[in-house]
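In the design runs reported in the main text, the only information available to the sequence generator was the tokenized backbone. The following block is the verbatim input for one such run; it is reproduced so that readers can re-run the procedure and compare outputs position by position.
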């Protein structure tokens, strides 16, 4: 029996889990539940016997995060595909099918979001095996979750019946309902939550696009034909990709196709679509309905979520009820649990005010490591920079600033114009304005340094790159 190739969708940004999830580092890459990130847990769930190496659909900003987190999880990817721009799920799924068809048109693809929580991985794999039988017979299989409450935040799937069959025909997709309609569907018993997970052969999906959304075929095919390999990533061509319509797979294909089947999954599942969902997932065994996790303490509280991402910032709640309090080093969210879906409004409001907290973290992840700003004023900035073993920043210069580097852990190999110097702990080096420079970590442990910038302009776009092992432009 042939293996199933997982296709993990990892390009979105979950604004409803702000301030932990932001555009620069969205929820799929964060440790929200358990020891792994949501992305790592998804990849591990769809690995092992019966599964091929995963294909990951992502964007340029996240490509190195994807590669690093897969490596940390011990998973070798089959392909990491870079989408030139966000065009929703329809073009991405067609691209995955066309790529699979190049080697095995009958090969099965399991498309799954990378930010869902499914605690019972074995039960989910059994559901996939059940669906694979129908998929090999030419069906497009979707997975429905048995609802345990009248949820208004999910779309639904209406089944053709309410029998015991493991695989049933799909009657229709139902948009997110109001509370009364959700209660009716819960009582009816033949409605399931739409998990947004699909299983199909490459050939069947391509045929579905040709029949129901043929306008996608030409631009996506061109994006693949003109793609190129970049440091091991497959970068789709922008010219074709950007001309594809921005549309979801549900609207483009699924709601029109007649060969859809549904596998019912009765295990626990959540798309973590809000902090109330995080609270619910961690509720088991917690006294008073309180989830006090990550540097937090609840005193005389009822049904609250308290969480801090910063060990130096302790969150303490006293006498609270039905509240969510989530803190990071630069932002704090306080909201009623019933308003969990409105957290995205905070992001919009902060963006309109021009606050960087709307989309960016103090810690900026880069392929070589990360940096964070410790102090910032009109003409100076102090950063902590961490460079991974064997990694190197680009050979670069600045027009508006000079830099002073002090190594506090490890050893840095520093190039300043034609001079190369090893700088060890408690040593420093000065980089004059306009000097061509680079720092590298030649050691076996992370290298940490403090950078003091001075100048008239301190933006990250004041950079001219001459060489870069990560093939980035000045804007990347």
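Verbatim output:
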């Amino acid at each position: 029996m042939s293996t199933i190739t997982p296709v993990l969708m990892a390009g979105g940004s979950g604004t409803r889990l702000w301030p932990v999830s932001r555009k620069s580092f969205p929820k799929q890459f964060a440790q929200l539940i358990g020891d792994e990130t949501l992305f790592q847990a998804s990849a591990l769930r769809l690995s092992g016997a019966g599964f091929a190496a995963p294909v990951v659909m992502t964007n340029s900003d996240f490509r190195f995060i994807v590669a690093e987190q897969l490596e940390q999880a011990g998973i070798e990817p089959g392909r990491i595909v870079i989408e030139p721009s966000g065009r929703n799920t329809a073009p991405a799924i067609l691209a995955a099918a066309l790529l699979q068809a190049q080697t095995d048109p009958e090969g099965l693809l399991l498309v799954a979001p990378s930010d869902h929580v499914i605690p019972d991985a074995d039960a989910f794999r059994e559901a996939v095996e059940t669906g694979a039988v129908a998929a090999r017979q030419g069906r497009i299989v979707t997975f429905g979750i048995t609802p345990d409450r009248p949820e208004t935040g999910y779309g639904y799937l209406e089944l053709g019946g309410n029998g015991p069959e493991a695989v049933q025909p799909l009657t229709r997709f139902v948009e997110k309902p109001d509370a009364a309609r959700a209660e009716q569907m819960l009582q009816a018993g033949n409605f399931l939550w739409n998990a947004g997970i699909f299983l199909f052969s490459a050939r069947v999906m391509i045929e579905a696009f040709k029949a129901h959304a043929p306008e996608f075929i030409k631009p996506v095919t061109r994006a693949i034909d003109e793609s190129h390999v970049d440091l091991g990533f497959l970068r789709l061509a922008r010219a074709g990709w950007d001309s594809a319509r921005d549309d979801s797979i549900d609207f483009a294909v699924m709601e029109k196709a007649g060969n859809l089947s549904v596998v019912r999954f009765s295990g626990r599942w959540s798309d973590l679509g809000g902090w109330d969902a995080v609270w619910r997932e961690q509720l088991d065994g917690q006294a008073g309905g309180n989830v006090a996790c990550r540097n937090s303490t609840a005193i005389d509280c009822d049904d609250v979520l308290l969480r801090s991402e910063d060990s130096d910032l302790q969150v303490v709640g006293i006498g609270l009820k039905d509240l969510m309090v989530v803190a990071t080093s630069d932002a704090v969210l306080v909201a009623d649990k019933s308003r969990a879906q409105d957290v995205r409004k905070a992001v919009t409001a902060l963006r309109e005010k021009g606050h960087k907290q709307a989309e960016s973290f103090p810690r900026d992840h880069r392929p070589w490591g990360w940096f964070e700003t410790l102090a910032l004023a009109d003409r100076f900035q102090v950063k902590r920079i961490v460079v991974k073993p064997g990694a190197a920043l680009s050979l670069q210069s600045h027009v508006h600033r000079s830099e002073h580097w002090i190594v506090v852990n490890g050893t840095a190999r520093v190039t300043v114009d034609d001079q190369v110097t090893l700088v060890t702990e408690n040593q420093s080096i000065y980089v004059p304005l306009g000097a061509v420079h680079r720092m590298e970590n030649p050691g076996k442990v992370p290298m940490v340094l403090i950078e003091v910038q001075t100048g008239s302009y301190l933006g990250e776009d004041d950079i001219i790159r001459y060489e870069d092992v990560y093939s980035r432009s000045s804007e990347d």
